[in-house]
Design goal:
The chain is α+β, with helices and mostly antiparallel strands and 325 residues long. The chain folds into three domains: 78 residues; 97 residues, Carboxypeptidase-like, regulatory domain (Immunoglobulin-like); 95 residues, Immunoglobulins (Immunoglobulin-like, Sandwich). It is 26% helix and 24% strand. A hairpin with a 6-residue loop joins strand 10 and strand 11. Helix 1 runs antiparallel to helix 2. The relative contact order is 0.10. The N terminus is likely disordered.
Amino acid sequence: MNDNFPPEALTQILKAFTDAGTENINALQQVRDVQVIMGSLLQHEAKRLEKKLGRENLRVQQVQASIKRNQAISRDLDVELEIAKIRVPEVNSEDSLIHGRVVDENRRGLAGLVVSLANIQGTIIPPLGNTQTQNSGYYALIINAEALEKNSQSIQEGVFVVVCNSKGELIYRQKDFIILVGGERILVEDIVLKRADLSPVCGGKQPPETPPKDDQTPSEREAWVVRGRVIDEKGQGMAGLMVSALDRDRRYDDKLGSALTNREGEFRITYRIQDFGEGLEPGPDLYITVIDINGNLLYSSINNIRENARREEVYEIRLDRGDRR
């Protein structure tokens, strides 16, 4: 806390920032709504004029050009809305924060990807933790000062930001290394991936012959969700814990996704039916695990599997903050 400000003054300042952010989001949303209405009117007018004057008429072509401009503005507004909704987490002064966005070619956020740190040799360092991208593509990896100290020898030459998909497959490795020092706040340049195959734009698998449309994100109708809270014995949220959802299988368990608990202990994991099956329901044989920043297993529901889980499952996990077992 800044000693130059009394607590009540800091509370007012933080409230002012929050209110300003909310007003900005509301204003952007209003402009976006106007663009949607304008786009609909232009589409209607284009069809009317084309039917009356023909497709090659100059006036029709002018309206079509206006439609394209409107669509471009709408895409830019969508990006601005995503960015405006991002809230950078509060981090203790001794801990480190590495954060940024994972986006597609149109700068739209890619959700549900797991961001970790790897050493110079390319090996992921579990004790430093990992985090999952939000709908905006934003990720915030908080590195505990104690974990950083314990692993200082293995990371003295630097670390790389790496991104894996929900199956744990590596799809991106940062080109430039980071020298990680306790208490640092590092904003990473946007990581741009292809939405078609989630391989780096600079290489990887070839995209399909027909490029995907801008809106080919998993829709709410297609998404499966695991959400809930991790609380202590007093009912207070436990932040900074990694919750993973898994599908129990005869051969090996499929990881459906992971999420870091927020200050209220809340988490939300989104996945698709392709992550656990052959495109057909019923749902997965679901269980979840909770680990701390040092990789210690605090909780597992493997002995209480939810067979053929529903499209949305909710958990409330109570842990003893004293021994975290």
